[in-house]
């Protein structure tokens, strides 16, 4: 199985998941923001920014924001949406880590892990942990079901992230599980 061609998806429709009009997406964004343990962050990294809507919401809670995506078309969309902010937008594919001006104290992985093959999911979590500040917070959120073009269901991807992170010394702060999506956050004690 190959990951989806996100550039082709964004070429066919600049909002392939109907982020701006979908109650699911607006609700998911609100829950992610509510899961954040701190009011403000020095530097946040949205590691799969897509259309940039979540990155824009995160930018209101942090001094600096880095938004990345594997799709050059998504990066362009995010750049347009964040043009009036101090955000840095770049193309980067997990498990790779972009050049970050400073280690982030918040990393958000939204609806991305299930699109990575098994070994890349673990490598992505390890790479994010290595790039983040020791006191960083990590948030993972997925549609709980199994997208046709993904390697596993979102609930399984989030549970796997929990296991990997806890084995590496992260402590889970919050867990939101409902019939539509699963979201969780962790910190290193």
What is this structure, in a nutshell?
The chain has 189 residues and is of the alpha/beta class. Helix content is 34%, strand content 23%. The chain has a single domain (6-187), classed as Rossmann fold.
Written account of the structure:
- With 189 residues, the protein is of the alpha/beta class.
- It has a single domain, classed as 3-Layer(aba) Sandwich (Rossmann fold).
- The protein has six helices and seven strands.
- The chain has a seven-stranded mixed sheet with strand order 3-2-1-4-5-7-6, with helices on both faces.
- Helix 4 links the parallel strand 2 and strand 3.
- Helix 5 crosses helix 6.
- The longest helix is centred in the middle third of the chain and has 14 residues.
What is the tally of beta strands? 7
CATH C-level category: Alpha Beta
Q: Helices and strands, in N-to-C order? A: HHEHEHEEHEHEE
Quick one: biggest sheet?
7 strands, mixed
Strand order of the largest sheet: 3-2-1-4-5-7-6
Question: Mind telling me which CATH architecture this is?
Answer: 3-Layer(aba) Sandwich
User: How many structural domains are formed by the residues?
Assistant: 1
Number of helices: 6
Which word captures the global form?
Answer: globular
Report the portion of residues in β strands. 15-25%
Helical coverage, percent range: 25-40%
Show unreliable segments: none
Q: For this structure, what is the CATH homologous superfamily? A: Vaccinia Virus protein VP39
Looking at the structure, the CATH topology is Rossmann fold
Mean pLDDT level: 96
Q: Which structural class is indicated by helix and strand composition?
A: alpha/beta
